[in-house]
From TrEMBL:
Residue ranges of every copy of the RapZ-like N-terminal domain listed in the record: 6-158
Gene: rapZ
HAMAP family per the UniProt record, alphabetical: RapZ_like (MF_00636)
Pfam families tied to this protein: PapZ_C, RapZ-like_N
Binding site for ATP: G11, L12, S13, G14, A15, G16, K17, T18
Protein name per Swiss-Prot or TrEMBL: RNase adapter RapZ
Organism whose genome encodes this protein: Pelotomaculum isophthalicicum JI
NCBIfam families according to UniProt: PRK05416.1
Amino acid sequence: MVTQRLVIVTGLSGAGKTQALHSLEDLGFFCVDNLPPALIPKFAELCAQAANKINKIALVVDIRGGEFFDTFFEVLSDLDARGIRCEILFLEASNETLVRRFKESRRRHPLSTYGEVLEGIQEERSRLQDLRGRANKIIDTSNMAVQQLKEVINGIFADGASASGLHITVISFGFKYGIPLDSDLVFDVRFLPNPYYQNNLRPFTGNDAVVREYVFSSPLTSEFMGKFSDLVQFLIPQYSKEGKTTLMIAVGCTGGMHRSVALANRLGEILSEKNFRVTVRHRDINRSK
C-alpha cells in the first residue's frame, strides 16, 4: 500500500511559494495553489479515492485565504484525527529581500494598505509566527536564486532509491552578513589562517586552488578538518534515526569568501566519498568582490 504524502506549502508572501510549488509539480506532485484550508481534508480524501490514486499532493495555503486562513490550525487537528499526515514547508526571507521583490514585481502585498509593503510584511510575519513553529521544514530564500531553491526542494521531497536517506546541505557563509537562519549546525572557522591578509590571494576564493592550498597548508586546518568530518559523520546516523530528512551544516568565516568556502567544499567531498547525499552551496562568495 502506497502512503499518501501531503505537503502544505506556506510562509511569507514573496518568499518563493510559487517557485516551490512548480518544483514539487516537477517531482510528480498534484499541486493546487491557494486552496481554502477547510477544503483540505475532503480534497485529500477525494485524491485517495480516485481511480488512479493521487499519492503525492502539494497545496499552497497562505494569508491570501483571508478569514479562511484563520481556521488552519483547526484543519490540521482534523487531518490528524482522520489519520492524514501532512508536512508543512514554511518559506521566509528577510524584510529587505521581500520589499525588494515586491518593488521589482510591482505587485501589492496582500496585507499592505496604501502600498506600504513593509507594514504588510511585518503584520504577516507576526500572524504566521505560530504556524512557523509547527513547520517541518523552514527555508530562508533571502539569498537563493530560483534554481537553488529548486535544488533544495528536490533534496527534501524527491523520492525513489536515489533519494533515500538524509539529504545534507553544506553551506558556506560570512558572519558579517549573518548566520543562515535555517542552519541545523553552525561552525565558526575564523580561527584558521586568513587568505584575505595575503595580497596575492585576496582576489581569489576558496574555490580556487591557490586559496585552498594556503588554507590547508596549516597543520591547524588539517587537524580541525579531521575532527570536524568525524563529528559530522558521527551525527548523521543519529539524526537519521530520529527521522530527520534534511540537515544543513553552515560553515562560517568573516566574509564567506575564503576559509569557509574551502572547508565546505572539502566536507562535501568527504561526505560524497562516503556515499551521503550532499549539496554544497556558497551563500556569500560573491559579496566581497
